[in-house]
């Protein structure tokens, strides 16, 4: 049940409390105004009692609508300009806060900014801003969806694709400006792995547990999804894996070359590859939204089974929310990234672990929970769309864009040459996922395997000293 329908259902319950049901003109229950309850004649003060009850109900409904109705807020149609605009501002604020259950963490945003400005301990600054960005990511997603509802399927899909990983992009740009290239690379790889292994594994596991038995026969059953779509996206993931393996292989071949020559070769290869990946991503969007949308019909059908949603705020208001939230994400990301170096020194945690495991949680926590929920409801195409679709965006859009940005704007040596261990972990993960989804079916055992692989990789990066993983990167960065 959505937040809007939940609120409507709750308001309906409030209206029904204490009401008198009289089907076919006869009492369906005990009347509150019955002499059995108040000791008076039925006609005595009847009009007064009903009037008082009506006033109380009206005031209750008005108060409830003011705080919980996301469709309309009293005062927005007032002739008083001050009342009208203040009511509109409250309506936008209310709708935004009630859009997702994680938004209670928005209280961490001002605390995180204060912590960064007041030079609190690195652990406190990192932790508070870490939790502050989680609801901001949910608000970004909500505002993007509100705008896309007014743009039509093609432009809406393009907007969702562009802003789908906005938080990871903002955090990575801030880290790239700070020359923390290893954090950027690890966060990109971590976002892909968390979607392919953690999210998909949880979807398979919990969806498989809840839907383990056929309700008619009682026999074991598997969940199904569109294998053709999964195969197409996995082919793109295999391509992105190759785009990381080839630079690592070239670096090994050029082992005896001078450092400047190796750096020049890796940068040239990475920038050319980034351009090709961006072109392929544009072609993928055209393929999905224009020429072959029928391949994604299974996902669309699940959407059509439910009551179509209407935007709860206008595009201008949603645009304002989008801009304000983006600025807040950038501020919190600045403090988050700025606390990484002191945190690594004080807590003895590798930068790669922070980038690979912790930062990916920030941008997609709410989206990940949504994917698991729809998997439990046996809507695997939607769950797969969240997991694999986000991975495609990171691999073919965000990572190549950061390479181009570092080259053309920031003058930073961002490359596709990842540390060898990261590249191997990514390649094996893509291989395992491809074999897992090729039959178009899933169960809890396959989910447990994906989760197990993710935990193994996380443990490997946790126990690996940061200096050991940064040696190769420092050589490329000069």
TrEMBL record:
Main location: membrane
Family annotation (Gene3D superfamilies): NCX, central ion-binding region (1.20.1420.30)
Membrane-topology descriptor: Multi-pass membrane protein
Record's subcellular location: Endomembrane system; Vacuole membrane
Pfam families: Na_Ca_ex
Cleavable signal peptide: none
Any one GO molecular function term: calcium:proton antiporter activity
Biased composition (Basic and acidic residues): 41-58
Positions in coiled-coil regions: none
Swiss-Prot/TrEMBL keywords: Antiport, Calcium, Calcium transport, Ion transport, Membrane, Transmembrane, Transmembrane helix, Transport, Vacuole
InterPro entries on file: CaH_exchang (IPR004713), CAX-like (IPR004798), NaCa_Exmemb (IPR004837), NCX_ion-bd_dom_sf (IPR044880)
A GO BP annotation: intracellular calcium ion homeostasis
Signal keyword on record: no
Domain spans labelled Sodium/calcium exchanger membrane region: 123-289, 320-462
Keyword Transmembrane helix: yes
Feature: compositional bias, Polar residues: 1-23
GO cellular component, one term: endomembrane system
Transmembrane segments: 97-116, 123-143, 155-176, 188-210, 230-254, 266-287, 316-337, 353-376, 382-409, 421-438, 444-463
Stretches for region Disordered: 1-58
Family assignment from sequence similarity: Belongs to the Ca(2+):cation antiporter (CaCA) (TC 2.A.19) family.
PANTHER family per record: VACUOLAR CALCIUM ION TRANSPORTER
Job description of the protein: Has a role in promoting intracellular calcium ion sequestration via the exchange of calcium ions for hydrogen ions across the vacuolar membrane. Involved also in manganese ion homeostasis via its uptake into the vacuole.
Entry protein name: Vacuolar calcium ion transporter
Source species taxonomy: Eukaryota, Fungi, Dikarya, Ascomycota, Pezizomycotina
């Amino acid at each position: 049940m959505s937040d809007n329908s939940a609120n409507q259902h709750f308001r309906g319950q409030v209206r029904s409390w204490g009401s008198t049901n009289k089907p076919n003109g006869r009492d369906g229950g005990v009347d509150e105004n019955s002499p059995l309850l108040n000791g008076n004649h039925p006609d005595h003060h009847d009009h007064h009692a009903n009037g008082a009850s009506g006033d109380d109900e009206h005031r209750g409904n008005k108060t409830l609508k003011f705080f919980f109705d996301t469709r309309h807020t009293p005062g927005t149609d007032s002739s008083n300009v001050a009342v009208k605009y203040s009511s509109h501002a409250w309506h936008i604020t209310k709708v935004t806060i009630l859009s997702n259950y994680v938004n209670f963490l928005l209280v961490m945003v001002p605390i995180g900014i204060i912590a960064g400005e007041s030079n609190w301990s690195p652990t406190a600054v990192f932790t508070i801003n870490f939790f502050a960005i989680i609801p901001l990511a949910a608000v970004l997603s909500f505002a993007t969806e509100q705008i896309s509802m007014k743009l039509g399927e093609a432009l809406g899909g393009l907007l969702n694709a562009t802003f789908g990983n906005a938080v990871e992009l903002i955090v990575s740009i801030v880290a790239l400006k700070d020359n923390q290239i290893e954090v950027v690379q690890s966060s990109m790889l971590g976002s892909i792995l968390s979607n392919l292994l953690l999210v998909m594994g949880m979807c398979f596991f919990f969806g498989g547990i809840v839907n383990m038995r056929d309700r008619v026969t009682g026999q074991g059953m598997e969940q199904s999804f569109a294998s053709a779509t999964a195969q197409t996206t996995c082919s793109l993931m295999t391509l992105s894996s190759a785009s990381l393996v080839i630079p690592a292989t070239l670096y090994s071949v050029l082992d005896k070359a001078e450092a400047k020559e190796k750096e020049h070769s890796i940068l040239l290869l990475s920038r050319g590859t980034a351009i090709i990946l961006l072109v392929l991503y544009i072609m993928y969007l055209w393929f999905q939204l224009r020429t072959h949308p029928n391949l994604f019909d299974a996902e669309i059908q699940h959407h059509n089974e439910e009551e179509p949603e209407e935007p709860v705020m206008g595009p201008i208001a949603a645009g304002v929310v989008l801009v304000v939230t983006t600025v807040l994400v950038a501020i919190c990301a600045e403090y988050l990234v700025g606390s990484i170096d002191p945190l690594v020194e004080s807590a003895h945690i590798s930068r790669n672990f922070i980038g690979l495991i912790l930062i990916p949680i920030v941008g997609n926590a709410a989206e990940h929970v949504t994917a698991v929920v729809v998997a439990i409801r046996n809507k695997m195409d939607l769950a797969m769309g969240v997991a694999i679709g986000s991975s495609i965006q990171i691999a073919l859009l965000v990572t190549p864009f950061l390479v181009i940005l570092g080259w053309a704007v920031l003058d930073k040596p961002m490359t596709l040459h990842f540390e060898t261990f990261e590249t191997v972990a990514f390649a094996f993960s893509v291989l395992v996922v491809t074999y897992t989804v090729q039959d178009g079916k899933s169960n809890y055992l396959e989910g447990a395997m994906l989760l197990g692989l993710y935990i193994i990789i996380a443990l490997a990066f946790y126990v690996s000293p940061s200096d050991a993983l940064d040696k190769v990167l420092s050589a490329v960065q000069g």
